[in-house]
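hey all, quick one before standup. I had two proteins in the batch that finished overnight and I want to keep them in one place so we stop losing track of which output belongs to which input. First protein below, input sequence then structure tokens straight from the run.
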Amino acid sequence: MNVSSLYVQSLHKGLQVLEAFQGQRAMTLPEIAVAVEITKSSAQRMVYTLEQMGYVTRDPTLKGYRLTPRAVTLGFGYLAKEPLLQGAYAILHGLNQECGESVNFSVPDGDDMVFVMRIHSFRHIPVYMPIGTRIPMASSASGRAVLAALAPEDAEARVMAMVLEQHTPQTTVHRERLVALVNEARGAGFAYADEEFFSGDVNVAAAVLDSARRPVAAVNLSVPKPRWSLERATQELAPLAMRAARAIGQG
């Protein structure tokens, strides 16, 4: 791969080090070196720089390095100033008030959906999913809704190139079945997932389109079993998700 002379390799490595902490409470220098595929001495220099800048700190209890609250500032500008999120908040809050269930707003990034806004239900304690949580497109209603908003050939190509992992006994790991679910969502205007990433969780979602009718986000309603069945969720909640997605979008 040809790399432009403008590409700063050291910055690339530094950001990779920060990304390596995703899902990890603390990491040692050897663990960081392995995760980023750099030498231990390079990892030491990167971590030292990040420590001086206040993004990581040594934790003697955990015997490694961990992120500090300052790391949150790296994504704060996007969350605070992104017009899509600013325009979505009131609509998502109204949706939560109307149905009383957990409302999620996520955006596509590669083969994942990244949660950028959550409004929790008051009816049950939801699964802890902080802003920034990533869920595979293949296993989520949000991801399937976004795929369904693509041209059929593009969506199928994306599915065929994905790495499919089994998260629960109900996770769809057969590509042909996943393509069929995406095609079903395209015809219905919404997608669903029944206990495919979290056991006991049913969710329905609709894609948010921009002015060029490209999928840029998804509105998701997440409800627990046995209080909700998949049939009831698709009948009662899917229309609400579609209405909210249309209100947020420009398509």
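OK second protein, same deal, sequence then tokens:
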Amino acid sequence: MSDMVYLIDSNSLITPSRTYYQFKFAPVFWERLEQEIIRGKIAILDLVKKEIGLGNDDLSKWLNGIEIGYYIDRRNEEIMLVYQEVLEHVRTNRCYKEAALKEWSNYNIADPWLIASAKVFGLTIVTFESNNTSLNIENPSRRAQIPDVAKFFNVNVCNLFKMMDDLKFIL
């Protein structure tokens, strides 16, 4: 069993709930995920819970009904300091256009908070975002991707399936 604790991005809950692990087809997946959330192996950031909770669907009902074992409030002072460093990195990195900073500067966008939280607590971010392989100063990107920025801060990132493998999910 992995010693790692995972911090899950909204897309790693929304995508499976709408596609291959819908609640009516894969209840065992959601039961297993719930077990890991309750025992604190999968952490939930307040903004992720808020985003999921805005929906009026099975996913929001499911998450709102769980006792979260490792809940992260982004207003933690250490997180806020690293959050500022994350935004400063996007601002000063010539591989990004101003639009990337503008998007991530929105207080309700979880991505920079996920990176800051993972950095502070030594967590691995679970996301379906992937590296921007064409990221360069000749053609700056309008969007920052979690894996690219997380790498700068030495934060580990994996996808849902890697986390499932590490936690020995059996469906």
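Flagging for whoever picks this up: Residues 6-73+158-166 form one domain. The chain is about 50% helix and 10% strand.
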